[in-house]
# Entry
Amino acid sequence: MNANKSISTASRIIMIIMLGAFSLRAAMAQTVSASKIMDDIKDGRNISYENVTITGELDFTYMDWKIDDLPKRSRWWNNSSNEVDETIEVSVSFINCTFEDDVLAYIHDDPSGYTFTADFEREVTFRNCEFTRKAMFKYSEFDDDVTFEGTKFRRESTFKYAEFDDFASFEGTTFNDDAIFKYTDFDQGVTFENAVFEESLNIKYLDVRGDFNIKDMKVDDDIDSKYTSINGRSFTSYLLRNRN
# Structure
């Protein structure tokens, strides 16, 4: 009897250990470090993740890798630019992912005076994702298809001066903070269908060529559309022409 009880207890302990190990592996599989993603991009690997949480700051500009090798700031920059650009040559895809820290394709570093940016040569997908902190794509150039469909921007974000060379989708996106598309260029059209802007929407100097879909778009605060151009027409003219 005692022997049988000992065997039964041992079996339960083994099962608990195995279940714990399985749970640990499952938890580990559901998180990916931003540093791993950055290493993979540098090694030329396409990025594709689904249903994971990305931990740590994801810096597409690679500022920390570059800054120590740059010349010290001169007072007038000797007529040279203070911009340092990184080109992401692989495709980037995140589906149903959560970013716990900042996602940066733009950084202005005050101590050095340099501005770091990132451009994207291939497809960029952030579908049904959640940016819990900053999502900065100021000055970024997107050469291929781009989608942020169903994605939530919880904190500060910007696409100021960004250029989209192919069609871009912000369908069903949610911006909890001010959304900035000032000076943004959409060369092949864009959709904001069913997008929700819980604060203000800045599309001042926005330039759109091609389709411009804002069906059921909702903006809770002001829209700054001064000098906005939709296929050569003002934003107000576009609304008047396309109202039901």
Observations:
- The longest strand covers residues 83-88.
- The longest helix spans residues 2-29.
- The chain is about 20% helix and 30% strand.
